[in-house]
Design brief:
Layout (H helix, E strand, L loop, with lengths): L2 H8 L13 H4 L22 H4 L1 E7 L11 E8 L4 H6 L2 H8 L4 H9 L17 E2 L5 E5 L4 H6 L6 H12 L8 E5 L13 H18 L3 E5 L1 H8 L14 E3 L2 E6 L2 H6 L4 H16 L1
Parallel strand pairs: 4-5, 4-6, 6-8
Antiparallel strand pairs: 1-2, 3-5, 7-8
Bound molecules: uracil.
The site of uracil (URA) has 12 residues, from helix 8.
Length: about 280
């Protein structure tokens, strides 16, 4: 069993494809259409037009829990005839992103827990998914788990986390209550280094899915890594992103300093407070 199949099986999504109009001997053991209760018709290959014979149709299940966990099929997508259907969806990046973009909370958590898609997983104890109210109005996004978070499996539980809790308190908020906290990467980078571009690109679809599922009223990006990853700005300074309201998929996004930076540069706390007030203003609108 390859890795993609293992992931799909783990998520209860396998088999996730149908192949229509196959020769009779190829039909045995092939998943049938689940929608409309229709049996796949088996037509000898020589009776089919060449273009048809070369096309498989892959049915993608509707997965998110908000849409229900009904394995009904949302769309038919043609793929190359030679490709392994599951692998064709999940092995390339676009397919993986499409898969993640359809997951509900339980499946997303499982996929993150078992993720080995980048080199960070080999060096960390566990993945750190995120924590809080799944219908939160406020989403705070950090960079990636530190050593304490790696040990505990929860974001922002070390010194920087204590400062984040104080920042929340200043806004009359508290962790878990109308607040969700997540990171750009879910695995602790070695020696607390900044996650690399390929690691961010691989992990970002998980955060993007979390945001789609939460639909917060406001997002606060804590530090440059979170801000540039979410806004896809490339390598710009944090200073150039602070002080204005950005748009993330229709959600106002405010950029502020990372709490770990504020621990080293406490003079900047006043500026961070300005950012949080701007976020509160956007939340209240
Ligand atoms: N720094 C982060 O960016 N995230 C954490 O979870 C902890 C520290």
């Amino acid at each position: 069993m390859d890795r993609n199949e293992a992931v799909l099986r783990e998520l209860n999504l396998y088999p996730q494809w149908v192949r229509r109009e196959l020769p009779a001997d190829e039909c045995r053991g092939t998943a049938r259409r689940a929608d409309a209760g229709a049996e796949a018709s088996c037509v000898p290959a020589e009776n089919r037009a060449a273009s048809e014979a070369d096309t498989q149709y892959v049915a993608q299940p509707v997965l998110s829990s908000d849409e229900g966990r009904n394995p009904s099929f949302a769309s038919d997508m043609p793929v190359e005839a030679e490709a392994e259907p599951a692998a064709a969806i999940a092995s390339d990046e676009a397919g993986r992103e499409q898969l993640i973009a359809r997951l509900g909370w339980p499946e997303l958590k499982t996929m993150v827990r078992d993720c080995t898609a980048c080199k960070l997983r080999a060096g960390c104890t566990q993945t750190v998914f995120g924590v809080g109210d799944q219908q939160a109005g406020w989403l705070f996004v950090g960079e990636g788990p530190g050593a304490d978070e790696d040990e505990r499996g929860e974001p922002f539980v070390g010194q920087a986390g204590k400062l984040l809790d104080s920042m929340l308190l200043a806004l009359k908020l508290k962790r878990g209550d109308n607040v969700y906290i997540a990171n750009v990467v879910k695995c602790h980078p070695p020696a607390n280094r900044t996650p690399e571009a390929d690691e961010i690109a691989t992990c970002l679809p998980y955060l993007q899915r979390q945001i789609k599922l939460i639909r917060p009223r406001v997002i606060v990006a804590l530090g440059k890594t979170a801000a540039t990853a979410l806004l896809k700005t490339g390598d710009v300074t944090l200073g150039s992103l602070r002080g204005e309201v950005h748009d993330y998929d229709g959600i106002p996004l405010i950029v502020t300093y990372h709490p770990a930076y504020l621990l080293r540069s406490p003079m900047e706390k006043a500026h961070a407070w300005q950012d949080l007030c701007l976020a509160r203003q956007k939340y209240s609108l």
